[in-house]
Amino acid sequence: SRDSSSNSRGALVVLEGLDRCGKTTQASRLAQYLEGLGHSVELWRFPDRTTSVGQMISSYLSNESQLDDHTIHLLFSANRWEKRSLMETKLKGGTTIILDRYSYSGVAFSCAKGLNFEWCKAPEVGLLAPDLVLYLNISPKMAAERKGYGSERYEQIEFQNQVVEAYRDLMIGSNWQIVDACQPMEVIEKELQEIVLDCVKKCQNGAPLSDLWS
Length: 214
Ligand code: DGP
Ligand code: NA
Ligand code: NA
Description:
One of its GO terms (molecular function) is dTMP kinase activity. By secondary structure, the chain is α/β, with parallel strands linked by helices.
């Protein structure tokens, strides 16, 4: 029952945050919520481990393979590029996409290793710019206490401290919405629903899609 007027487009909503900040759960709840209201919505995630590039990334993350820091950075980026045109088609067709991680993870996690900020951003230029970035804010220490922590390559407190620093650099001058990820799940859920619904409505007859970094 989505708005089928010709200029109606979907919103591109990104959830970012440290590992175990709860964004995967919240992304899925958000998608269900919008669907329940009759919106056309899809839940996506990056890395998308289902593609051949995504399988290389997955094997790297589980420490089954080793790759040069620049090489893995470009693979993560390629993984977003291979979905760009489908993403554009969906959004223009009126479908909202809730995205579990995007280019900001790409920059934050590679900068955390010491790679140059501008170098990290470069391959992301020209991907679609999100309409909304939600940052689920949690300290590395709190995140590390959550279930399942430590199972993949980047889930170490020292490293996540560096990731936080990089996210902070990305936040400067941005209009990210920062949400306290240590609140009860239902409270976070309600908070996100309100922000996202507002964004979805604005996008229906709002500005056309633009490119990163804008
Ligand atoms: P997830 O499936 O959301 O748990 O992400 C897997 C891990 O990969 C997580 O530690 C975050 C990290 N990650 C996500 N996107 C990127 C990226 O573009 N570049 C790098 N270097 N790491 C990423
Ligand atoms: Na993770
Ligand atoms: Na992901």
